[in-house]
Amino acid sequence: MSAARPAKGRWIEDWDAEDEQYWERGGKRVARRNLYLSVASEHIGFSIWSMWSVLVLFMTPEIGLGFAPDEKFLLVVTPTLVGALLRPPYSWAVTRFGGRNWTVFASAILLVPALATVWFIQRPGTPLWVFLLISALGGVGGGNFASSMTNITSFFPRRHQGWALGLNAGGGNLGVAAVQLLGLLVITTVGDTHPAYVAAVYLPLIVLVSLLCAVKMDNIAAVRAAPGAQREALAHRDTWWISLLYIGTFGSFIGYGFAFGLVLQTQFGSTPLQAASYTFLGPLLGSFARPLGGWLADRFGGARVTLLTFGGMGAGTGVLLLASARDSLTLFIGGFTALFVLSGIGNGSTYKLIPTAFARDAEARIVAGYDAHRAFAAARRLSGAAIGIAGAVGALGGVAINLAFRGAYSGGGGNGTPAFLSFLGYYAVCAVVTWVVYVRRERAAAAAAAAAKAPAQVSAQVSAGPRPTEPARV
User: Fold this and answer.
1) Strand partners, 219
2) Is the pLDDT of residue 227 over 70?
3) 356 pLDDT above the threshold of 70
4) Which residues pair with 373 in a beta bridge?
5) Could you tell me the pLDDT band of residue 470, with boundaries at 50, 70 and 90?
6) 113: domain CATH number?
7) How many angstroms separate the CA atoms of 74 and 94, rounded?
8) CB-based contacts of 450, cutoff 8 Å, min separation 6
9) Helices (H), 434-468
C-alpha cells in the first residue's frame, strides 16, 4: 500500500501508521514532513506567546513605560491564561478542519499580536490596559501547542509517538528560549530602549511558515474525532491524572520561563541586560530535554521516568530555597536551570502516558470482543482529545506559578520563598500520584506479560523434546 501525498488541500483517507509496510513505503516520509512544519509553526507560536516575558524587561521609566513589578507579572500572566484557555478549542479545531488547514490559520493569525506589539510598544505613556489587551492577543500562540500535538499524534505509530511528540513539543518549547535570546541580542546591539525590534523580527517568519504549511502539509482522516470525543476524554480518569501531572511539568516549564527574568530583576536587582543574559539558558536546555524525556519514556516507561523527574524537581526546588536564604545568585540560577531541564524531561515522559493509557483500554476492549481496528482508532481519537485537555490544564499551572510569584514579591517579603514552598508541596503530590496510579500499573502489566510468556516458553521447550544427556564428568 502506498502513502502517496494527495492533491493540495485533500485529505489522506487511508492513513494507517501502525501498518509497518505502509509506514516504510511512504508513510514515514509524509509523517516527518508534517512533523517538521508543525514544529516550525509551534515554535513561532511559543515565541509570540512568551514574548512578554522579554518585553517587560524593556519596560522602564527611560522609555516612558515604568510599570511596577506586580503590574509586569500581570502582563506575563495574561497571555499564559489566554493560551491555556485556547488549547481545548485549538485541539478540537484540528479534528474539525484538518491538521494542515488549522495549522495555516493558527500560524497566520500570529500576525495580529505581533503587529499590535510593534505599533504600541514604542509609544511612551501607553496605559497598562492596552498592553494587557495586546498580551492577551499574544495568547493565541499558546493554543498552537494543543493543535500541533493532536495532529502529530495521528501521524505516527505508537512505537514512535514518544519520540515524535517529544520532538514536536521540544521544538515548540524552543520558541521560549529563542525569543529570549532575541531579546538579549537586541539589548546588546542597540540597547534596552527598542523593544519593538523583538516583535518585528517575527513578522516575515510568520508569513513564511504560513505559506510553507499551506503548500506542504496534509490533512488526514485519522485525526477526525467522532462527536463527543472531548466529552468522552473528559470522563476518562487518566485524562485528569495526567493533567494533574502535566501541571507539575509543563506548568513549571512555562511558568518559570515566563517569570525567570522578572524574578531576577525583583529579587536580585538585575539590569535588563543581566536578566536577559540568563533567562534563555533554562528554556533552551529544557526544550532540548523534552525529546529526551519522550525517548526515555519509550525505552523505560513513562511512569518510571516521570516519577524520577518529580523527585529531581523536588530537590531542585530545595536548592532554590537554599539560594534564597543565602541570597546566592549563582546557586539560584543553578537551581532554576536544573528545574528547566527536569521539567523538559517530565513533559516528554508525561505525554507518553496519554497514548499508552488509551491503548491499554483498547487492548482490554479487544479482549472483550471489540473489533481491533475500531478499538485502536477510537484510542487515537481520544488520545488527541486528552492531549488538548492536558495541555490546557498544564498551561494553567504556568498561570498559577506566575500568580504565586506575584503574591510572594508584592507582599513585601523580598524573595520567592513562599512560592517555592508551594511548588515543593505540589511536586510531592505529583510523585505520589505517579507511583500509585502509573508505576504500580506498569509493574502489574509487566508481571502479567511475563506470566503469560512463561507457559509459552515451557510449551516450546517441551515440544522441542529432551536435551541429550551430557556424559558424567570424572
Assistant:
1) 11
2) no
3) yes
4) none
5) very low
6) 1.20.1250.20
7) 31
8) none
9) 440-464
Tell me the per-residue pLDDT of 193-222, one tens digit each, with 9 for 90 and over.
Answer: 888 999 999 999 999 999 999 999 999 887
**DSSP string for 3-51:** ----STT-EESS--TT-HHHIIIIIHHHHHHHHHHHHHHHHHHHHHHHT
Of 73, 62, 61, the C-alpha closest to 265 is 73
Instruction: Specify if 254 maps to a domain.
Output: yes
Q: Helix (H, G, I), strand (E, B), or coil: what is residue 207?
A: helix
Q: Which three cell numbers stand for residue 30?
A: 509524509
Domain assignment of residue 457, yes or no: no
**Cell digits for 192?**
534596552
Q: Which of 226, 246, 221, 240 is nearest to 379 (CA)?
A: 226
pTM, two decimals, is 0.77
Total domains, the chain? 1
* DSSP state for residue 465 in the 8-state scheme: -
Tell me what percent of the residues of the chain surpass a pLDDT of 90. Answer: 33
Q: Which helix (H) or strand (E) holds 274?
A: helix 272-279
The x, y and z cell numbers of residue 414, run together, are 523580598
Range of the domain at 270: 11-447
HEC sequence for 132-200:
HHHHHHHCHHHHHHHHHHHHHHHHCCHHHHHHHHHHHHHHHHHHHHHHHHHHHHHHHHHCCCCCHHHHH
Q: Does residue 470 lie within any of the structural domains? A: no
Is residue 465 assigned to a domain? no
pLDDT, tens only, 428-460 = 999 999 999 888 877 776 666 666 665 555 455
Alpha-helical runs (H) found in 69-127: 69-97, 99-108, 111-120
The candidate with the shortest Cα–Cα distance to 305, out of 340, 353, 254, is 353
Which residue reads 501531572 in cell numbers? 245
